[in-house]
Specification:
This protein has 3 domains: 128 residues, Immunoglobulin-like (Sandwich); 423 residues, Glycosidases (TIM Barrel, Alpha-Beta Barrel); 112 residues, Immunoglobulin-like (Sandwich). With 696 residues, the chain is an alpha/beta fold.
């Protein structure tokens, strides 16, 4: 739309809704600021305009209702950029107030934000400059969804694929037209379809500060790549858009969601409400500090100039303050209602369970509000059920519907596959849905999101190739990242040409993947693990917007055997409802009839090594859950020698070999029509291997 610089006439406007709302008469602007004494709205023609074309001073008697400042700008066209300036007291120590009328603020409710003039480090080193802040964009809503709605995939059928929008297609090998964007991801939908996943879980896509890194990291030319530094929660990240200066953020994001839905793939957003890009006292003022610092953040009650930090990022959002809780809930409902996303994964979600003093709450209002929201009733809600201050709530996260990243699953499976003895009982609990964590609280296997790797830590190939982190390139002296990796390199640290070690590593990778897709609960696969993507031993590639952090698409050909293995394992899981149970296995016949739903074994039938401190083997028989489904017999041999496993009920029907990770590709996994018959009543499982048999 053609923009004609003002001045535009104004009217009082109204306090609700917050943000910039296009109406018949013009655009209504409204922001919350409880303790501000004055406000100015600055209007810019476009993202790069050096000066505003109109500065509107709001009158307290006309444009101020309760704690909101509001004004209607008559006939203002969509596409206009804007900022706010707020006046008020600067008393951080006594009251937490940090008003500074020099600083332009980005609207916390902005639907699109651009950062053309933003320089975090110049701001922190040299102070405030005129018109240097991010700018919000006025957007009209005329998008045609063409009948699209959020998908409603039953949780037990979900297979999550965690990916980074930028890193997924940034590599030259991606071959997409717009690398590193929402549009680039759309071009890779056929790959996702062929893989067989049901949902993508997108690392942060709400507008974040790419410049939010320690000074020594910035001086190396590195940026905040992962995006866990949000400043504008309603806006898609401009760096993932092809045309952000035109305000196309929302359209491009919606196009991606619509295309994924057409392919039958749901969209889960990784959201960061536990902290913001504004950091601690030395961090910049972008929005929340300038509108209501004392409302939005947890502050020390003796010195409110000090931010309580339960996130490791300088500040913690005061998530259970009534206004802040409403802000977060409104944001989530917006992304479901207006952007059609299918769910959310909450970063450091336990920080959202703390009160204004930082103490854990038994019934946090925010978390229950999310659980009970009618708008979010069909959305998946997934908690990273811990925070950086030691609050660990896996199995005890508030609520009932919340799914959880099961860190206990990750650790147990890592230990088992690397060869730790005496933990087969715990492994059995994890594989069968972690009833020890969830059942007592009336939860289900679908509360457990099972994973071996995620963005935070080693990739799968690095997990089997390194025993120590190698994060030197991050510029923090290899002090960053977790040192508790529970990994094993097979005898050599890092890259090697030893054929035996390389073969062992590939087998171990298959063992991990096999266990993941054979476990009750919701499996999550890290993007690139299916083709053995490596980060060179870097287990915290948060600042590596370079080949270290990108998906190298050459690997799809180089490691086509692994890609095939993963695809076939996903297919096996999908055709076996017994692997997708909503209820916990009991070890008893269903309805008192037929075979037990699961029977555990060791080398001998019905004799698992629960009490053997040396045991590194486990097997189980899983009864079919539906008519026409085959029973499964699964064998885990994580010892260093081959083992002979007895097979159950092998006389009436035949066992067919579906998976054996010790076999070379393509004989490591067989589609049903190609599965060979297993002779006899035993199976020789090679050292460090996983075997799956189907009976028919």
């Amino acid at each position: 739309m053609n923009r004609v610089p003002g001045p535009y006439a104004i009217r009082p406007g109204r306090r609700h809704p917050s943000g910039a709302t296009v109406e018949d008469e013009g655009v209504n602007f409204s922001v919350y600021s409880r303790h501000a004494s004055g406000a100015e709205l600055l209007l810019y023609e476009h993202a790069e305009s050096p000066e505003p074309f109109q500065v509107i001073r709001l009158e307290p008697d006309v444009n101020h209702t309760f704690f909101s400042w509001h004004v209607l700008v008559v006939d203002l066209p969509p596409g206009t950029h804007y900022t706010w300036r707020m006046e008020g007291p600067y008393e951080p120590k006594e009251h937490g107030w940090r008003f500074d009328q020099r600083v332009e603020l980005v609207d916390p409710w902005a639907r699109a934000v651009n950062t053309c003039h933003w320089d975090r480090w110049e701001r922190q080193r040299d102070g405030v400059r005129s018109h240097d802040s991010p700018r919000a964009v006025v957007l009209a809503d005329d998008y045609d969804w063409e009948g699209d709605t959020p998908l409603h995939v039953p949780p037990e059928e979900m297979i999550i694929y965690e990916l980074h929008v930028g890193g997924f297609t940034r590599h030259d090998s991606s071959g997409v037209r717009f690398p590193g964007t929402f549009a680039g991801l759309v071009e890779k939908i056929p790959y996702l379809q062929a893989l067989g996943i049901t949902h993508v879980e997108l690392m942060p896509v709400m507008a974040f500060d790419e410049q939010d890194v320690p000074e020594q990291v910035w001086d190396l030319g590195l940026t905040n790549f992962w995006g866990y530094s949000t400043h504008s929660f309603f806006s898609p990240h401009p760096g993932y858009c092809v045309a952000p200066r035109e305000g196309n953020h929302r359209t491009e994001f919606r196009d991606m969601v619509k295309a994924l839905h057409r392919a039958g793939i749901g969209v889960i957003l990784d959201v960061v409400f536990n902290h913001t890009a504004e950091g601690a006292a030395g961090g910049p003022v972008l929005n929340l500090k300038g509108f209501g610092n004392e409302t939005f953040y947890l502050l020390d009650h003796l010195d409110k100039g000090i931010y309580l930090d339960f996130t490791g990022c300088g500040n913690t959002v005061n998530a259970n303050h009534p206004f802040v809780a409403r802000f977060i809930l409104e944001c989530l409902e917006y992304w479901v209602r207006e952007m059609h996303v299918d769910g959310f994964r909450f970063d450091l979600a336990s920080a959202l369970a703390r009160d204004e003093n930082g103490q854990p709450m038994h019934n946090p209002p925010l978390l229950w509000g999310i659980e009970l929201s009618d708008v979010l009733a069909q959305s998946e809600i997934i908690a990273e059920a811990w925070d950086a201050a030691g609050l660990y709530q896996v199995g005890t996260f508030p609520g009932y519907r919340w799914m959880e990243w099961n860190g206990r699953y990750r650790d147990s499976i890592r230990r088992f596959v690397r060869g730790d003895p005496g933990i087969v009982g715990e492994v059995a609990s994890r594989v069968s849905g972690s009833s020890d964590l969830y059942q007592a609280n009336l939860r289900l296997p679908i509360n457990s999101v099972n994973f071996v790797t995620c963005h935070d830590g080693f990739t799968l190939w690095d997990l089997v190739s390194y025993e120590q982190k190698h994060n030197e390139a991050n510029g923090e002296g290899n002090r960053d990242g977790c040192s508790h990796n529970l990994s094993w390199n097979g005898g050599v640290e890092g890259a090697t040409k030893d054929a035996d070690i390389l073969a062992l590593r590939r087998r171990q990778a298959k063992n991990f993947l096999g266990l993941l897709f054979l476990s009750q609960g919701v499996p999550m696969l890290l993007a690139g693990d299916e083709v053995l993507r490596s980060q060179g031993g870097n287990n915290n590639a948060w600042c590596q917007n370079n080949p270290t952090g990108w998906f190298d698409w050459h690997l799809t050909a180089q490691n086509a055997d692994m890609l095939r293995f993963v695809t076939e394992m996903i297919d096996l899981r999908k055709r076996h409802p017994s692997l997708q149970r909503r209820r916990f296995l009991t070890g008893l016949p269903k309805n008192g009839k037929g075979r037990a739903d699961i029977v555990w074994h060791g080398l001998k039938i019905d004799e698992p090594g629960w009490d053997d401190p040396r045991c590194r083997t486990l097997a189980f028989t899983l009864a079919a859950a539906e008519q026409g489904e085959e029973d499964l017999h699964v064998i885990f041999n994580m010892s260093d020698d081959y083992q002979i496993f007895a097979l159950s009920e092998c006389t009436d029907r035949s066992w067919h070999l579906a998976v054996d990770t010790a076999r070379p590709s393509p004989e490591d996994v067989f589609p049903p029509q190609e599965q060979p018959i297993v002779d006899g009543c035993s199976y020789r499982a090679q050292a460090r291997s996983l075997v799956v048999l189907e009976r028919r």
